[in-house]
Amino acid sequence: MQWNWDHIRYFMALAEHGTLSEAARSIGVSHTTVQRRIKQFEVQIQARLFDHASNGYALTKVGETLFEEATKIQQSLSGLSRALQGADDELAGEVIITTTDTLAHSVLPPLIADLSTMYPDITCSIFMDTHLSNIDKREADIAIRTGNAPPDNLIGRKVANIHFGVAASEHYVAGIDLNQPLEDWHGYRFIALDASFSSAPFYQWFNRLMPISADKTTVNNFLCAAAMANAGLGITLLPAYIIPAYKNLVRLKTKTQVAANGVWVLSNSDLRDTEKVRVVRQYLYDKLPVVLAPTA
After folding, report:
1. What tens digit of pLDDT does each residue of 1-10 get?
2. Model confidence over 163-195: pLDDT tens digits?
3. What pTM was estimated for this model as a whole?
4. Domain 164-252 fold
5. Which among 16, 61, 170, 175 is least surrounded, fewest beta carbons within 10 Å?
């Protein structure tokens, strides 16, 4: 039997993400394309790979076996790719950086512009993603991530802390004395992050301050929260470095400060001797502590 190996890509995406919409988003196609490819693959191998439930797709026993073996092949190919990449000593070519939405939006653009002037033959591509799986699969060379500690299979260092601030539009808080800590949190509307951030200290801190019965809008990223607050929808919590980028936002004083979140620059251990990755990583080591240093 001759396989269409392109079907494996769709199979792996659905197996990893569990829903057609998420699998489609990861590949950059429509969910109907993923569904069609999976059906074609099942016909080709004459076996059912997924059980469809109300909350998504689960692997059958055949699917689990295929996923296990395909993962081994994927890891072997990734290792080969990294080995070939590690042999490249030229300061030229593409370096893929994956990072969070706010760092990609508000911090990296001037740094990448400066880096491109210093090393014109190196092209930096930036992808916003909150998962580390892409660097493990060699879909990225460098990951800039926030958190307490990096995975054991990646090398790098903590370069800075992200500090947070409570903000709202100047019009929305026109009656608040900005020189005094906000005492009464009742009576305001809030823009809160969703539960995907629930393990983060900043999420827990902000939720403790919000009244239980507060009127709130929930979003799943800081850029959306900032845009909502800038439009006058309510009070939100933001990384301090993005607040100045919005002309209507003012920072509110609070009695206590939220814990900072670490920023890590990470890469695969077997890429540490790749010259183009090394110089980009070192540049980020040097520059990120400066641009992320608190200004107040």
Report:
1. 566 777 888 9
2. 999 999 999 998 888 888 887 888 899 999 998
3. 0.65
4. D-Maltodextrin-Binding Protein; domain 2 (3.40.190)
5. 175
Give tens-digit pLDDT for 222-269.
999 999 999 999 999 999 999 999 999 999 999 888 878 899 998 876
Secondary structure of the chain in HEC code, one letter for each residue: CCCCCHHHHHHHHHHHHCCHHHHHHHHCCCHHHHHHHHHHHHHHHCCCCEEEECCEEEECHHHHHHHHHHHHHHHHHHHHHHHHHHCCCCCCEEEEEEECHHHHHHHHHHHHHHHHHHCCCEEEEEEECCCCHHHHCCCCCEEEEECCCCCCCEEEEEEEEECEEEEEECCCCCCCCCCCCCCCCCCCEEEEECHHHCCCHHHHHHHHHCCCCCEEEEECCHHHHHHHHHCCCCEEEEEHHHHHHCCCEEEECCCCCCCCEEEEEEEEHHHCCCHHHHHHHHHHHHHHHHHCCCCC
Question: Position of tokens 């005094």?
Answer: 180
Domain spans in the chain, listed from the N-terminal domain onward: 6-85, 89-161+261-291, 164-252
Specify the amino acid at residue 87.
A
Token pair, residue 222, equals: 């800081």
How would you write 183-250 as a 3-class SS string?
CCCCCCEEEEECHHHCCCHHHHHHHHHCCCCCEEEEECCHHHHHHHHHCCCCEEEEEHHHHHHCCCEE
Does domain 89-161+261-291 fall into CATH 3.40.190.10?
yes
Tens digits of per-residue pLDDT, 99-135? Answer: 999 999 999 999 999 999 999 999 999 988 755 545 5
CATH 3.30.70.890 is the classification of domain 6-85: no
- Kindly state the average pLDDT of the residues 197-203: 89
Could you check whether 6-85 and 164-252 share the same CATH topology?
no
The first and second tokens of residue 128, run together, are: 């916003």
